[in-house]
Design a protein that fits this description.
heterodimer; A: 245 residues; MetI-like fold; 10 helices; 73% helix; B: 224 residues; mainly alpha; globular
Amino acid sequence: MNLFAEAIAWLLDPLNWQGSGSIAERVGEHLAYTAIAVLVAIIIAVPLGWWIGHTGQGKEIVVGITGAARALPSFGLIFLFVMLVGVGARVPAAVVVLMLLAIPPLLAGAYAGFEVIDRRTIDAARAMGMTEWQILWKVEVPLGLPLLFGGLRSAVLQVVATAVLIAYIGLGGLGYDIVQGIALRRYDQMLGSALLIIALALLLDAIFALLERYSVPRGVRAGRDTDVRTTPTGRRATADNPATT
Amino acid sequence: MTWVVNNLELILQLTLQHIRLSLLPIILGFVIALPLGWVAYRYRLTRGLVLTLVGLLYTIPSLALFVVLPPLLGIGFLSEANVLIALTIYAVAIMARSVADALASVDPDIRQAATAMGYSSWGRFWTVDVPLAGPVLLAGLRVVAVSTVSLLTVGIVVGVQSLGYLFTNGYQRGILASVLTGVVMTVLVALLFDRVLAMIGGRLMPWTRASAQNTAAPTSEAAA
């Protein structure tokens, strides 16, 4: 436990919060890389996922991309991209890799959000005379929002975790102090920054979990049943499994 | 290409090492997650507790976990145990949720029928619940296998040899072929695990193959 005390002492040492390379600056860099990568990924993945979900065309693309992305080692991709574009362009290379990691969960979230909507809801909207554009914005997008935010949450966590590794190509972020700590054999610094990274990841997870929860439209929340999984016996009527057959 | 030919032995050795190190976390993750997932599935109170806990564990970035585990457990920072325990934690984190979902996917009527036929809850769990939950369990295990293989590469930063060596060493020496080979081989090992698990699943659950064929036929007819 002594090591943890030293790590906390390192974190609280005012000297480590001053000048260039301070802890605050590392946190800022880390969040900046994360934000840029996720924003670019949103611009690409969300419209595509919505389009696939709305039209029902190209579902295989989503399944294929999310499956294949899991097998790709992000650590290796960082090195690969930097070597391909040259060390001078390593900042954009790192952002591109982080963005690529954020795309699959966002795409899956955007698509799945539309996919789980009861088809009768959309038929009803169409029967009421809504245009396709209105169905998209007034029915599908609000109903799909919780799953989209779920995807956003996974994307952010994935990117925050991987941004730790960009220190290996000489970039900043919170991984920098760990990499430097390993080289200098300074365990207090390594452990201190590791604890900070964990705290940051948990904080972001909590924020996006709240976003996910409060994005459920009011009408859906009011009519929601208890979770089937917590009631092992007793059957619930669903669209695929009506109670009266 | 010449780099690959000249270093074939190193690539092969690292690939075998990678497969060896991936096996333990995948197997251990499954074994630990089974009772944990059951507890999450069975009781409303523990469900929230277990799933929140594994969710939080999964949130921890791998490099940070490699640094935090040694002082917590009293193991060496540069030891294989460090990386294997970290990967097992991730495997459990993914798998426990899959087990809970898999058990919930079993039709409650079947469970009641088994109980009515005189199965003890222990006997029913192994002979009715687990086989019927099999397809979802298998899907979870395949995710675990693929992500374990991919995450293991990060272990090189704490000195554990795997295909990740081709990344760091290749980058330091400026050999693009080395990094590229590392990425390709990691994906191939992940695909290998995925295929093998799917095959084992097909063997253990012959009914899933039969039903896949049965349902495939009518839909193709309907389309025509």
